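**Paired protein data**
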Amino acid sequence: GQQEGRFKRISMHVNCRDKLENDVKDKGVAPMYDKLIKALGDEALRTGHWRQCWTSASQDGNPSFERFVAHCSWTDSQKLAITVVNFCSHDSNGHIGLPSEMNWVRGKQAILTDMLSDTVILKDGGVLLGDHGGLWLSLKPWQSHIFHVTFGGK
């Protein structure tokens, strides 16, 4: 029921439930779960190597970046995904960067496509590694991105 946005919790033994239209509190939950489940099919997320991304403050020194949870995963065939979550109830911003062992992204044009929204970001691979401070993001409370990263020419 959670994937449909249901909010009433009943015992499984009762085997009685309100109709879906009478028990859905947030109709935006089902489309979000559809996108999340589709994103979890990404090869880099399912079978890749995982590492924590580093985070740092924006140029203004705002400490809200400390609330970011950021990880990357990649395959040996260089498929890459980056996940970022603002893990708090306040807006947060800051930079994230990939671990240095992912130096193979340098010199490539990275296309970050968020699998949870329509956000698309174009960045040089060097920025993802930390050039110019790293990838700057501003996230609303509890907002998250799961970026599928593809690479174009320079």
About this structure: DSSP finds three helices and nine strands in the chain. Helices lie at 29-39, 43-47, 125-129. The longest strand covers residues 144-152. Residues 29-39 form the longest helix (11 residues).
